[in-house]
Inverse folding.
């Protein structure tokens, strides 16, 4: 039996093991997609047959802080040789932050034949599995996508504000110091534009890394995840939850865990996150007692 199916996930089909990927490296119905924070990492070595999806150049609009439109997504899918029947498997660095982010963007366009490789690059490398610098070339496809759906899995600032006023459930997946307001960004990272520190009122602080095994970045079993999100944090899986971080990548990881692994009914990712909220005029901010950073 596949080890992942024993962990009790609501939707185990969206998570595949490194063993599964190794057995499907030459499967024409599967397309491996590497998406990293470090956009130069792919060139240094990647899984055989994997294509590179750059989160800055391929998924984002070059002028607006928004994602590509339907036509841009169709061009991307054609370029990487994907059809609506292709199973796209994402993996990457940073415990799959950007792999989950790319997975999330693909869901906005309705490509549901998708999964994430549990553990990402770290686990693959730990196991001594092969990497290559050879860049594959696949015949272009003809792909027709739906219009981007910004309602089901995505939240915007004004929607988050209404959610706060209604007492809705929010999960802040940043580090404790970011949540308290002591920091405007993660340690060893630049400030990406936020002028104020703190968190959205009512948000629970659940750093994204609590969802994974620190040894190899694999997701914890469903029972352990439920202990955190349902037990400790008292989140109701029947009510809507909005997750956020700094720019939407860490929160896409938590969105994935809540929606697919725990089966929460309505989960949205606020990709504007703290870079937007920490700059917005007139929105409420909370800080931990005694913190005066700004």
């Amino acid at each position: 039996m596949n080890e992942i199916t024993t962990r009790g996930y609501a939707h185990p089909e969206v998570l595949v093991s490194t063993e599964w990927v190794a057995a499907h490296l030459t499967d024409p119905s599967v397309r491996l997609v590497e998406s990293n924070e470090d956009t130069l990492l792919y060139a240094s070595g990647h899984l055989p047959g994997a294509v590179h999806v750059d989160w800055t150049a391929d998924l984002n609009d070059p002028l607006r802080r928004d994602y590509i439109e339907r036509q841009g997504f169709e061009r991307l899918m054609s370029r990487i040789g994907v059809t609506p029947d292709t199973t796209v498997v994402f993996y990457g660095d940073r415990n799959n932050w950007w792999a989950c982010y790319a997975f999330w963007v693909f869901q906005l366009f309705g490509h549901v034949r998708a999964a994430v490789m549990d553990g990402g690059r770290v686990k693959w490398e730990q196991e001594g599995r092969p990497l290559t610098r050879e860049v594959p070339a696949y015949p272009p496809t003809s792909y027709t996508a739906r219009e981007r759906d910004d309602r089901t899995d995505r939240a915007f600032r004004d929607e988050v504000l209404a959610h706060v006023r209604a007492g809705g459930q929010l999960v802040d997946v940043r580090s404790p110091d970011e949540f308290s307001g002591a920091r405007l960004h993660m340690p060893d990272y630049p400030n990406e534009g936020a002028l104020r520190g703190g968190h959205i009122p009512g948000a629970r602080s659940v750093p994204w890394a609590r969802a994974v095994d620190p040894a190899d970045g694999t997701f914890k079993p469903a029972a352990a995840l439920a202990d955190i999100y349902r037990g400790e944090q008292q989140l109701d899986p029947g009510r809507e939850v909005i997750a956020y971080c700094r720019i939407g990548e860490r929160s896409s990881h938590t969105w994935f865990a809540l929606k697919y692994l725990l089966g929460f009914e309505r989960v949205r990712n606020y990709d504007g996150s703290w870079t937007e909220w920490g700059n917005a005029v007139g929105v409420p901010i909370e800080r931990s007692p005694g913190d005066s950073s700004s």
In short: The CA atoms of residues 8 and 223 lie 7 Å apart. The chain has ten helices and nine strands. The first helix runs from residue 18 to 23.
